[in-house]
Amino acid sequence: MKKLKLFVLSFTLLMIPFLSSCIDSGSDDTSSKPYYVFARVVNSMGTYLIADSGETLIPTSASLSSLASKGLKIDAIDKAYIAYTLVDPSQVTAQASKDPSDRTYNIELTYIASIDRKVAFVTKGSANDSISTDPILQLDLMTQTSQLYINKGYLIIAPSYYFYSKTHYFTMFNYTDQSFQAVSDPTKPDVLNLYLSHNDNSDNKLNGYLSSNVAGSYPFLYFMSFNINSILNSLPTTKSKITINVNIVKDEGTTFNKVYSTEYDI
């Protein structure tokens, strides 16, 4: 088990460079090289993707049709984990001097999985406060220094938890009456407190699998994205940064007992 977990941790760390640079423009062998990135799906004047590193990725019609024939409904996806190869590697060198957000690549989309999860806006203790407190082991590193990775208002995490045969439900709770915390010191950012709800659906975890151990085969069970743009846009702050805290129930606890934090430019 420990060896498997170390392997998947290595797999996760290997992905980290893709979060800052989608394609190495100096590579000599890009025609068949697979790339694995987080991307947002855009369905406007056709379907394309925007990688977290900024590049626009245009899938071939054939690759979209192939995925659709397997049951994929790409128009229902917002944030995804994808795998692709380049159609024309010369596009890389031709656009190397451009800013990533100005680069466009034609790709063969070979894999796509939604990592979308829900965000709940509730008042703490109200009738619709359905937060669940089934524990998880931890949030694994998403960057070299943080368990919380945020790109253009999408918060992505990688919870390590045991599962067996049932669907687990993860929701990010924003308690609208108390999530924002103003900090009087003008040199320090204000604080946004969020709570990760985990409902294990009464799964038999004793004979289960660890989510981080199956990330290579089933990334949608491990990586989770929460669109918190509406929260960030409504914060009553004049500061340029916000400290975001994600609270979890760790190990065998029954109350929120672990906090992960990061600072984010707003």
UniProtKB/TrEMBL annotation:
Keyword line: Signal
Residues making up the signal peptide according to the UniProt record: 1-21
Protein name: NigD-like protein
Organism listed in the record: Bacteroides luti
Organism phylogeny: Bacteria, Pseudomonadati, Bacteroidota, Bacteroidia, Bacteroidales
